[in-house]
Amino acid sequence: MNRDIEIAQQATLQDIGAIAAKLGVPEGSLERYGHHKAKLPLSLIDAEKARQSNLILVTAISPTPAGEGKTTVSIGLSQGLQKIGKKTVVVLREPSLGPVFGIKGGAAGGGQSQVLPMEDINLHFTGDFSAIEKAHNLLAALIDNNIQSKQNNLGIDPRTVLWKRVMDMNDRALRQVIVGLGGTGNGLPRETGFDITAASEIMAILCLCENRTDLKTRLGNIFVGFTYDRKPVYARDLGAQGAMAALLKDAIKPNLVQALEGVPAILHGGPFANIAQGTNSVMATRMGLSLADYAVTEAGFGADLGAEKFLDIKCQSAGLSPKAAVLVATIRALKYHGGISLDDLKHPNPEAVKKGLPNLEKHLENLQQFGLPVVVAINRFVYDSEEELAAVEAACAQKGVKVARSDGWAHGGEGTRALAEAVVELAESGNTQFKPMYEWGMPVKEKIKAIATKIYGAADVAYSREAERDLRRIRKLELEGLPVCIAKTQKSLSDDPKLTGRPKGFTLHIRGIEIAAGAGFLVPLSGNMMRMPGLPAAPAALNIDIDDEGVISGLF
User: Fold this and answer.
1) What are the catalytic residues?
2) How far apart are CA 298 and CA 279, in angstroms?
3) The model's pTM
4) Tell me, what's the pLDDT at 6?
């Protein structure tokens, strides 16, 4: 980012007390982390007020590898809503260090639609990810300690232990490891591995729990493995839930920061949508709805992933119902789905845009299947041509769908005024008829098939031998009534990242199904989806530096 622009933006930072006052939160309720960050106490959540407020979901079409700016649009929309006089808060996820140092870079918006202080948010922030990582790895240590111990030994069969360790970094070398080497004093050797912290079940639990009591119950429900006599072992059997919850005593509280133009922003939790549920915490969303009339939130990656999981898992679990949805599209993504290579996306090509429109149309259909009124937000880039933009607008008009250009990156709230007005019109129309894609009580295969055929557009679902074994285990543990959180590539509606556009007639392949009993869902693993990403050949970390005055560069 240009240093002059960065300095100008930092100069707009208000004391967090002034931001809290906009929401009616007194200074005495804040738990400050300096001048510009604070934790919000859970006592501020007002269930009745939350039910009366307007929840707006921002999602997107299938993205290019760089992402399509959902967070930027979410922030821009909140700025636009404030411009037209609505009491608004934007409720987002916290960034993971994996993408920050990997491909995408920072995840706090951009240009004139970003949350501040960006350096803090993109790096360690208030320590929530660290606390989640420590709580997760504490359970891992307790498991190995119990296997090693001669006292209070549960008889855990180490071959059945499913609980890995986590780290908030992209590191492919840790996907498969062996622990316990070096002799009898170091434990029993066994195979395990690492997931990225955003994929931790602790992250999912934190983002779905209702309060501290629910948090401890969910932590205790984590499925660990089996004993030698085939009895299931849960974290509560190890007595782990109390200490784990203690590590999360501050992480459970949502974080208050600000967007440019002084818009209040609540950031909390950060699960990925391609390997987890892809949305911020229930408590943060309820907090936003309690403190403002409009709460704008985003769900990761495309509507086939983030939005589906937001609606089928989070909303069903917490009793939430969005009043409207915003579907973010970019000209570059449409050209990508129209067959254009990544290197050529900046060149005008209206015909490629038209060829990529079926991807947009499918995501529109998906949101409409949930009974949500939708507005398409074209997130503008400087190299978009008028002819390309007009092609998208014409396609939306033909389908009777509202569309607005989003210029938040360049102009902040003024650039999203039209989008904000369209959202308010939809939200206040009373036309929302939200309904889930499936009932939780359906058989697991039927739930997966409903998502695969109705949302992805698959013709069929195929299960590996391992997946069939996992299904038998799920039935034995009486966990069939849990919803499903499918781990799938974000690059395609299918499980093959090379099938761009709107693929049809394909088969979704399920190679295994993991149990997240604490979080309260099952995780079918589709294709070759990894839960520990790797760094690219030229990671974003190579551009990040800090000078003698402590000023960080290259993070954006």
Assistant:
1) 70, 72, 93, 104, 273, 301, 381, 409
2) 7
3) 0.94
4) 54
Sheet containing 460-463: order of strands? 460-463, 507-516, 521-526
Distance from CA of residue 263 to its chain's centroid? 21
- Distance, in Å, from the CA atom of 289 to the CA atom of 300, rounded to the nearest integer, reads 20
Let me know if 151 is exposed, middle or buried by CB neighbors in 10 A (0-12, 13-18, 19+). Answer: exposed
Can you read off the two tokens belonging to residue 165? Answer: 């360790």
Place of tokens 């006599």: 229
What residue type is assigned to position 458 of the chain? A
How many whole angstroms separate alpha carbon 155 and alpha carbon 146?
Answer: 8
Long-range contacts of 237-242 (CB under 8 A, 24+ apart): 237/154, 238/139, 238/142, 238/143, 238/146, 238/154, 240/138, 240/139, 240/142, 241/216, 241/217, 242/216
Beta-carbon contacts of 535 under 8 Å, excluding residues fewer than 6 positions away, are 101, 102, 170, 171, 172, 541
**pLDDT by residue (tens digit) across 415-452?**
999 999 999 999 999 888 999 999 999 999 999 999 99
Q: Which run of H or E residues covers position 335?
A: helix 331-337
pLDDT score recorded for residue 555? 79
Residues 419 and 378: their CA atoms lie apart, in Å, by 9
- The residues near 439 (Cβ < 8 Å, ≥ 6 apart) are none
**DSSP assignment of 213-256:** HHHHHHHHT-EEEEBTT--EEEGGGGT-HHHHHHHTTTTTSPEE
Q: Are 197 and 128 in contact (CB under 8 A)?
A: no
The structure tokens listed for 499 are 């099938």
Q: What is the mean pLDDT of residues 391-415?
A: 97
Give the pLDDT confidence of 331-341 residue by residue, as tens digits.
999 999 999 99
Give residues with Cβ within 8 angstroms of 155, minimum separation 6.
227, 228, 229
For residue 272, the model assigns a pLDDT of 85
